[in-house]
Amino acid sequence: MTALSTMARPSSDAASALSARARPIPARAGIGLRLPHHAHVRDTAPTTAWFEAHPENYMTPGLADELAGFAERYPVSLHAVGLSLGSACGVDPDHLGRLAALERRVRPGLMSDHLSWSAAGAPGGPLHLPDLLPLPYTEEAFAVVRANVDHVQEALGRPILIENPSTYLRFAGSRLGEAEFLGALACATGCGVLLDINNIHVSVMNQGGDPGHALDAYLRVIPHAAVGEIHLAGHAVRELGGGRRVRIDDHGSRVSAEVWALYARAVRRLGPRPTLIEWDTDIPDFRVLEEEAAAAQAILDQAAAREPVHV
After folding, report:
1. Count of beta carbons in the 10 Å neighbourhood of residue 12
2. Could you write out the DSSP letters of every residue in 36-62?
3. Domain count, the chain
4. Cβ neighbour number for residue 61 with a 10 Å cutoff
5. Would you tell me how many other CB atoms lie within 10 Å of the CB of residue 23?
6. What does the pLDDT look like over 147-185, one tens digit per residue?
């Protein structure tokens, strides 16, 4: 597996072309745009620095126009959930075509998806599953993801960010750690990394590790310049009996104190990065999201006042 670390990053021509046409996402705290808040954002024009949307919710002409209207007033990032970059059957060409059409309509500052799979080859077309499923971190899986990321970036004409997933198990056959896999992928394809701090906490706690040590591993292995965005969200804790707990990445509550501490640790080392507050279940009043974004912004402001610590 050491050969993965020697792969060179391709040229940044796509990124240069992108900068001429898209409104960049600022290194400030943004909010996930969800349907219950559309009217509030449209009618009151809050001072939110930027918004992120799931493109799969806007792949029809009317909804695409609505999102484009928001993009005329705010920087917008598109965070996909349906590319299934880990699928050996490849990326669904219909889905990718619709995503590319929305990209041309909205001109987002950033685009991203997950280090996961959710589709498998089946007679008559791919079988799509309603979850983001984990991968074994092997040479074979790396070749699949690399090919799919290259294909998507070529189709879109721009680099994308890849997010570390929340996981509930670890594959015995994995030969790389998650950070090494993502770092090698960034070097091989020129993609960026979307660092989800809540997912690090959830995954490592579910597997009996130390989230702080895991974050340090990420920041040692992944080129800091590749980290283009950070995600923050809440998670649920479920008691399994016998003193066992599982953490569920449900995006249905405020960011936990432990995740805030990890986030502050990350931005002290990385410097400020575009940071998103995600909230997808039990969606509260928009004011609650503004409060969470303000808490993230306070940490970003502290980081901006000092030089990042490189490790």
Report:
1. 12
2. GGHHHHHHH----S-EEE-GGGG-SHH
3. 1
4. 10
5. 15
6. 999 999 999 999 999 999 988 777 777 788 899 999 999
